[in-house]
Design a protein that fits this description.
Structural class: alpha+beta
Shape: globular
Oligomer: single chain
Low-confidence stretches: 4-28, 37-73, 734-748
Strand content: 15-25%
Number of strands: 38
Helix content: 25-40%
Radius of gyration: 26 Å
């Protein structure tokens, strides 16, 4: 399958991004905000729907049609436009004062999620990454201490707050509901309005939905903003919903799709389809001659009682083998097997005058002998966001107007469709490369606009491609099967080279002495060959008991809580079933710490007898590792797996099997959910750094120190010691002393030992 590539729009003035001459360049963030003012006015004045809308994980969709809300939105926009010149003047004066104590004008972080240091070293040695090699020679290259556990939401939360997880409250993608033991998204809660007005069959919400960020701690760019330093933040994980601060921000990981999930694809086929796809839905269609009629599935209609999920009808007419014509939402698109459409805007009608808009891409898989069509998860339309995905809210619209539609889903690359073999390698790579191309346009636009302040942008492609294509570089992987001869055997290598080109263009945009550039990854990567069913291990060791018919049931539905002391849900570790904390807890709180230590001791050094390998490197008592007000919210035990191992797919969803270890035969063949000492990230910098053992949590404090802003005492990270442009190191500052912060506190010492 050869999936077509989409050409992205150039800036509205027709000049390629990054190539404007000085007269064209907007040299200040104040003008950046000025460019947002007109689109804001247009959006507010021309908005056709009377809606506040939200989409939430498992919570459905709700629309408020309050005329008061529309009036307030219009009035707020009008006031903002009227007051803009005064605010511009105040910010300009404040900005000049803010930089008076700064060592630099600009701090730029290019995040390459999951870049593995050993691969970076290998490709640099082979001459495949000349730009990173130059950055290493002229400045610094080092391994970067990650977090426990080394999962993206945990690591990026530590990056942006400068705190260990006990202070930012993010320990995994998932947490558990203490009442029902069901999985919950750990970073955000979305609930509808608590009050509604009944008008016939309609339920009109009164008030706004409750969209709540569960990550705690203050991002370092918020602290900079309090001191007058402007920031442009693009697609950094765990920034949804967006917080108000002095800058612009587009949210990333955990932004849901329009159905309220973290990404649900649709697969339309004339085949008898009975598969139960994870994060996907198969829909059987009938072909009448050359015509197939069906519908897209939207969010639940919370406006009309008993209406169910909203639908958007579409029609496909087969025009030849491997060719068809799509009609949807009043537009027509030509389809060719193996080629994606551009982003398609689709509309769902909730009630009279109330519409919800989304975007998706269609991929015709085949027309003969059976019809098969893939549709990406339907995402929030950035032109008319159904919920806030940026700060200020109009920033998402500004980006869409200037560069065209773009992916808004937090996890936009559809790994589950490739796992399910609905997508092939080509189809998945298209999504990865398209998402990175969209982000490049945003990144260089931000670099062009923000000439003083902070710019942070995270690219996901390195992480997603390594997750799905590690099977090509590990001959011992169960999913390898002669993959060395396949077309995409060099997919990881080639993407590292693409990222090196990106680094080279970034270096050209940061070639002045007053800009500090860092290229970082939140963790490294390794093979995922075997999965440990943690719940089976707990059962075998007497800590978990199943009901007679409980084996194989998801989400811990088969667990007998009256006899269970510990259970696993998610990728990070194990929770105890503590009395007074969990709904059916049986472990006395006074006995909990001894039980944690007992389980940790038994798990550490666990052998996979069948494979003859070490499966678990270390298990950590989280209550002795984390420090802070949210430490008690962590799983009680964090498992540090050895290379090649991870929690099994079944353990992650609380579905006990009948085997302790399982071969991983899925396309998702690489991972990083292991002992953090085994998967450090990377740190490249255009300045020399002489601090030993730099950590991800130190980068926020480093930014504050470079701008002359005091580092808050609750921040665990300490500033790295960076040289000035002439190569000399300043004698003042708060450079970190390795492992000396809170040296007398045993909890913090274990955290340092876990991640250094």
């Amino acid at each position: 399958m050869n999936c077509g590539r989409i050409q992205r729009a150039a800036p509205s003035d027709g000049t390629p991004v990054g190539n404007q001459n000085p007269r064209q360049r907007l040299c200040s963030h104040t003008f950046f905000l000025a460019r947002l003012a007109l689109p804001a006015a247009v959006v507010i004045l021309a908005w056709p729907d009377t809606a506040h809308a939200y989409i939430g994980p498992g919570a459905g969709f709700a629309v408020g049609t309050s005329l008061l809300a529309v009036f307030l939105a219009f009035f707020s926009g009008l006031v903002a436009i009227v007051l803009w010149p005064f605010r511009w003047t105040i910010r300009a004066i404040r900005g000049r004062r803010a930089h008076a104590n700064a060592r630099i004008k600009r701090f730029v972080v290019l995040g390459l999620d999951g870049m593995e240091p050993t691969l970076a070293e290998k490709y640099m040695a082979e001459g495949k990454m000349p730009n990173l090699s130059r950055l290493k020679e002229e400045g610094t290259f080092s391994r970067l201490g990650t977090t426990l556990p080394p999962l993206s939401p945990v690591a990026w939360s530590t990056f942006l707050t400068g705190c260990n997880p006990g202070k930012h409250n993010t320990f995994d993608f998932l947490t558990r509901d203490k009442r029902s033991y069901q999985p919950l998204l750990s970073s955000v809660r979305i609930r509808g309005s608590s009050r509604t007005l009944k008008l016939g069959p309609y339920r009109i919400p009164i008030g706004k939905p409750d969209i709540r960020l569960l990550r705690r701690g203050k991002p370092f760019w918020n602290i900079l903003g309090e001191h007058g330093i402007f920031s442009g933040i693009v697609r950094v994980p765990i920034t949804f919903p967006p917080e108000k601060f002095n800058g612009v921000l587009l949210s990333a990981m955990c932004v849901p799709d329009i159905r309220g999930t973290q990404g649900t694809f649709s697969y339309y086929t004339t085949r008898d389809e009975h598969d139960d796809y994870i994060s996907g839905q198969a829909i059987r269609v009938q072909r009448q001659g050359d015509v197939i009629q069906s519908h897209l599935i939207g969010p639940e209609n919370s406006i009309k009682e008993g209406a169910g999920a909203m639908q958007c009808p579409f029609q496909v007419t087969v025009t030849g083998e491997g060719r068809a014509r799509l009609q949807v939402s009043g537009e027509t698109y030509e389809l060719k097997a193996g080629g994606y459409t551009p982003w398609v805007r689709v509309t769902f009608k909730a009630g009279p005058g109330v519409k919800v808009r989304g975007i998706c891409e269609f991929l015709l898989l085949r027309t003969e002998p059976d019809f098969e069509l893939y549709v990406t998860p339907i995402q929030i339309d950035p032109n008319k966001p159904a919920m806030p995905i940026s700060h200020p809210p109009v920033y998402a619209t500004y980006l869409a107007k200037s560069q065209g539609l773009y992916a808004t889903l937090g996890l936009a690359e559809d790994t589950w469709a490739l796992n399910a073999k609905i997508l092939g390698d080509d189809g998945f790579l298209h999504q990865c490369l398209e998402a990175d191309e969209e982000r490049e346009t945003m990144f260089f636009d931000t670099l062009e606009k923000v000439r003083r302040g902070t710019v942070v942008c995270v690219f996901d492609g390195t992480d997603r491609i390594q997750h799905m294509f590690w099977r090509y570089i590990d001959p011992s992987h169960p999913a390898y099967n002669g993959q060395a001869e396949q077309q995409h055997r060099n997919a990881i290598n080639e993407h590292y080279e693409r990222m090196d080109e990106l680094v080279g263009r970034t270096m050209k945009s940061c070639d002045d002495d007053d800009t500090v550039l860092m290229v970082v990854s939140d963790h490294g990567f390794n093979s995922f060959r075997r999965g440990l069913d943690v719940n089976v291990w707990l059962e075998q060791n007497g800590y978990l008991t199943l009901k007679p018919d409980g084996r194989g049931k998801k989400y811990l539905a088969g667990v007998d809580w009256s006899q269970t002391k510990a259970f696993c849900l998610g990728l990070a570790g194990i929770w105890l079933n503590v009395k007074g904390r969990e709904a059916h807890g049986i472990v006395e709180p006074a006995d909990a710490d001894a039980l944690r230590n007992e389980i940790c001791e038994k798990l550490t050094g666990l052998q996979d007898e069948e494979a003859g390998e070490l499966a678990v490197s270390r298990a950590f008592n989280a209550h002795r590792t984390y420090q802070g007000p949210y430490a008690a919210e962590a799983p009680d035990i964090i498992i540090g797996y050895n290379r090649g191992y991870r929690a099994s797919w079944e353990a992650a969803v609380g579905q006990p099997t009948d085997a302790l270890f399982h071969d991983n035969t899925r396309a998702w063949s690489g991972d990083h959910c292991i002992d953090p000492k085994l998967v450090p990230g990377v740190l490249f910098c255009n300045r020399k750094i002489d601090t030993p053992n730099p950590r991800l949590m130190d980068l926020g404090a480093t930014a504050l120190e470079l701008f002359g802003v005091p580092v808050p005492p609750n921040m665990d990270g300490k500033p790295l010691r960076l040289a000035d442009p002439d190569g000399t190191f300043p004698t003042n500052g708060r450079a970190r002393e390795a492992k000396t912060s809170d040296a007398g506190e045993p909890l913090h010492k274990e955290q340092l030992a876990a991640t250094s």
